[in-house]
Amino acid sequence: MTSLVRGRPATVKDVARHAGVSASTVSNVLHGRSSVADEIRARVEAAIADVGYVPSAAGRLLRSGTSEVIQLALPDIRSPYYSALAHTVIQRARDLGMTVVIEETDGAVEQEQRVASSHPHRGVGGTLICPMSLTSDDLAELRPELPTVLLGEHTQGDAFDQVFIDSRAAARDVAAHLVGRGRRRFAFVGTERGEGTGPGALRLAGVRDVLRAEGLDLPDAAVLGTPDFGRETGISVGEGLPVGEDGFDAVVCATDELAVGVLHALARRGVDVPRDVAVTGWDDAPESRFVTPSLTTVAHDLDDLAAAALGFVTARRADPARRPGRHVSPHRLVVRDSTRAV
């Protein structure tokens, strides 16, 4: 069957126009309401077939106002970490009979506030949000009517349930591994500018914990703040990074994307990783296994994180007055060639 609508998906209005009825009548047919005469119903169903209209599962749930839709708000779904997180949440939600609608916030405070303050009339029964810009004060002013769960450590607050990994503890694992490999001159790439409690700052603190215990130093000049956590930024950092005998012998990056960019720049400079400098990343993105050398990184237990977040939504539905909870998901250090012993 060929759709009568060219260049875009058919809509309810297209069906209504083709059938010669109102959009509300089409909606009544789609919802199986008995108020529609048989002749009209048949005409609408024929129009649906003619224009190629396909009602989505998420759309049906949203229109019906059920509580089976969970909105997942992420800063950038192009990020390997966030796309992997979205995939895992969708799989877990499906097991629970839920549908996930993804909102991309770009890390903008206005978008995050809009999502975090959603109301049930939008058809959403719960919110999972990874805030980048909302502060604790912002959170305190919000009074969401939906079960809302914070993902990650960018925003700390006691108004919502929260699920995260312990970035500081994971960073201690990274630093201890590098010290065990004989590395002594560290650089850290990827702190959030103007931010003291985000994951970058917590990871930096974890590295400093280990170095301090070893009698080593990580001066401020060796801490490189970045405007973002992408590959291009990593390349820019790597192009000017002093490494080897007269520079750093270990570079800890706050994300795999930064680390991949650093590796790319170092390779173009002829720097041998890990002989001249060891490099680590964060998130265990798929490309971390396939770059050369393969990247040592921190892996999050995304399945545990997704299950805990959805569990908080379910628990708050059952008891809206319950006190907010916090869940720390496991992590593990994945050792690869970028930090192998030399």
Question: Summed up, what is this model?
Answer:
Helix content is 40%, strand content 16%. The protein contains twelve helices and twelve strands. The protein has a six-stranded parallel beta sheet, sandwiched between helices. A four-stranded parallel beta sheet has the order 7-6-8-9, sandwiched between helices. Strands 10-12 form a two-stranded antiparallel sheet.
Give a quick set of tags describing it.
single chain; 342 residues; alpha/beta; 434 Repressor (Amino-terminal Domain); Rossmann fold; six-stranded parallel beta sheet; 12 helices; 40% helix; elongated; Peripla_BP_I; Lambda_DNA-bd_dom_sf; transcription regulation
